[in-house]
What we know:
Layout: E1 17-22, H1 28-37, E2 41-47, H2 51-61, E3 66-67, H3 70-77, E4 81-84, H4 91-100, E5 104-107, H5 115-127, E6 132-134, H6 142-152, E7 159-167, H7 194-206, E8 214-220, E9 232-239, E10 242-249, E11 256-263, E12 267-271, E13 278-280, H8 286-315, H9 322-336, H10 344-358
Parallel strand pairs: 1-2, 1-4, 2-3, 4-5, 5-6, 7-10
Antiparallel strand pairs: 7-11, 8-9, 9-10, 11-12, 12-13
Family: Belongs to the Gfo/Idh/MocA family.
Keywords: Oxidoreductase
InterPro entries: Gfo/Idh/MocA-like_OxRdtase_N, Gfo/Idh/MocA_oxidoreduct, NAD(P)-bd_dom_sf
Amino acid sequence: MSSLSTTPAPVTSGKKLRAAVIGTGKISEEHLKYLKSDPQVDLIGVCDLSPSLAKYAATRFGAAEAFTDSGVMLRTAKPDVVHVLTPPHTHVGIVTDALSHGAHVVCEKPIAPQRQQFLDLWTMAQAKGLRLVEDHNYRFNEPILAIEKLMNDGKLGAPREVEVRMALQIRGAGRYADTSMPHPSHNLPAGVLHEFISHLCYLALRFIPGDVDRIAAGWSKHGTEPLFKFDDLDALVMAGVVHGRIRFTTHAAPDTFMVTVRGEKGWAETDLFQPYLRVTIPRKGGAQLSPLINHYLNGKMFKRAAVRGFRNKIMQHTPYEGLKTFLGRTYEAFRTGGEPPVTYNDMDRASRLIDALLDEKNRV
C-alpha cells in the first residue's frame, strides 16, 4: 500500500471521548442525536457563527458549552473528536485547524472540493496519528447493506451494471435557489451539484470493483437562472465489464434517490427516499417459477414498505437512518484503534471519480 495508507491510531478504550460539533445546519441534528445517545461520549461543545443556534443546539442536546469561534473551542475545550458539519467550501480550513489541535475528524462530504486537497489533509492526519473520516452515511442505510449482503452471498452474481439516480427539485425554492443570499456551494467546481455527487459516487463505487477506466460525463444546464452552474448530470462510468451510471437532475419529479445493482444472476434496487428493497433472483422453484415467486415476494415487500413509509412520515424519520450505524462503527474504531468503516481507499476512490467527472477531457 502507498505511503498514504492508514497508520494505527491511539487506543482510547476505557475513557469517554470528548466530542465537539462545528456547524448547526440540518445534518447536525442527526450527529448530535448520536453523540447524546452514546454513553461513552461527552459532548463538550457546539459551535456556530450564530450565537442563538449554537446555544439552542447545546441546550437541546446537552453540550457542555456553546461557542461562536471554532478556534476558541478547539483551544479551550480540547475535544478528542471534531464533527465538521459546515458548508463544503469551509471544510479544508476547519479540518486543518481541528487536526492541528490533535483531534480526530468526522467531516461531511465532500471533505475537500478537489482530490489533492483531500490528500494533503490525509497526509497531515497520518503524520499526527489521527483519523480523518468522510461521512458516507447512505452506504449504511439498511437497503444498501442488504444489497451488499446479496452481492457478497453470491445471490446476484458478479456485478455488471450499477445505477445511482437522484432527482431533487432544488431550483424553484429553498436555500440553493435564494438569489438574494446565494448559497456558497454555488462556487464549488460543480456548483451545488458538488454537494450531492459525493453520495452518488461512493454508492456507485461500492458495487464497482477495480479501477474506473472510462468515463463520459454529460454536464448540462437546462434552466435559465444564472445562479446554477449545472442542474443535470448524466455520466457513464466503466470499470472493465462493469458499467455504472450516475444521474442527477433538478427537473424530474418526485424527489428520488434510487440505487440499482444488476449482476450475472439477478438484480436489486431501492429508493433511499422511500425505502424498499426489490429483489429479482433465481428461486428454489426453478426458472419456470422464479418470476412468479419474485413477484409475490416483492409484492409483500412493497406493502410492508408502504406501511413503514407512512410510519416514518408520521414519526418524522429521515433518510439519514444509516448515519447512526456509520457513527457507531466510527467511534468504535476511535476507541479501539481499528479501521474506520469509511477507509482511505473509499474516500480516495470517490474523490478521484469526482475529479474525473469534472475533467474537461471526460465531458461529452
